[in-house]
Design the sequence.
């Protein structure tokens, strides 16, 4: 049992409240998973200044002089956000070359990924998440079932540029798909089944598929019970398994689209009383773009 939340803002007047709203949503899901948590925030100008590549790192203390680039480092909890005037991909290659054992929590322009072990209320306070701004946020509270309670096992899994995935449930055939991806040259950071789903989606997006088609392929390939939320810089998508075993609810207004494992995660959003609210259908991909 885990908790998923996601918020896609349509109204720029709400951008200053992204972190505040996401914090409330995530903390409402605390009892669905209190061993670790993580968020992906799109568009905060302090964490990810416009026009700069960004890499989110864990399990390392980066030193700017060790990188052959002009890099700024911001520490947020246990995560270090590295930004540079070069592209995120070029920055990522430099970081991997310098810190081969570091855990890359995410990378991409405008994307900051924060992860930690502990309860969501403590973690969001340590990150100062309530002060974050931006146009989109994704969060996850974890109750570990498939792998150890470590930062590498926490969601989101952000393994493609500006991409992230969060997951409630389990994939029954993840070991088989992991082997297939590894034989194609894909590297993994954890034993978590969710990472297999994230790497699968990232590989399909890298081939040029759109997110809706990539998620349809995932539904046709993976066995198990799941609710997934997949985002990139400009989109936000939700899908459930064939029998919709894991809970999920979507709400939509002219100002925002939101998703949560339970309605109470959405109950504090502005204007929710006027929202269209529904439970997503099995294996139907719901997607929105900026």
Sequence:
């Amino acid at each position: 049992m885990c908790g998923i939340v996601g918020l896609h803002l349509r109204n720029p007047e709400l951008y200053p409240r992204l972190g505040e709203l996401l914090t409330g949503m995530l903390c409402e899901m605390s009892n669905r998973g209190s061993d670790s948590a993580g968020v992906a925030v799109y568009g905060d100008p302090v964490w990810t200044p416009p026009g700069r590549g960004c890499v989110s790192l864990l399990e390392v203390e980066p030193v700017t002089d060790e990188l052959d680039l002009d890099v700024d480092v911001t520490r947020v909890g246990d995560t270090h956000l590295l930004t540079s005037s070069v592209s995120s991909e070029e920055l990522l290659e430099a970081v991997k070359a310098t810190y081969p054992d570091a855990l890359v929590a995410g990378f991409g322009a405008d994307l900051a990924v924060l992860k930690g072990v502990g309860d969501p209320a403590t973690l969001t306070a340590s990150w100062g998440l309530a002060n974050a701004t931006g146009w989109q946020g994704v969060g996850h509270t974890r109750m570990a079932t498939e792998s150890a309670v470590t930062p590498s096992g926490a969601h989101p899994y952000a393994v493609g540029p500006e991409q992230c995935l969060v997951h409630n449930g389990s994939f029954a055939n993840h070991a088989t798909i992991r082997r297939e991806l590894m034989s194609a040259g894909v590297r993994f950071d954890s034993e978590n089944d969710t990472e297999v789903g994230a790497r699968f989606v990232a590989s399909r997006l890298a081939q040029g598929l759109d997110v809706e088609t990539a998620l349809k392929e995932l539904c046709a390939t993976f066995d198990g019970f799941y609710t997934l939320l997949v985002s990139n810089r400009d989109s936000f998508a939700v899908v459930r398994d064939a029998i919709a075993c894991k809970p999920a609810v979507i709400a939509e207004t002219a100002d925002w689209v939101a998703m949560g494992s339970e309605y109470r995660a959405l109950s504090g959003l502005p204007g929710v009383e006027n929202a269209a609210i529904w439970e997503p259908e099995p294996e139907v991909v719901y997607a929105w773009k900026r």
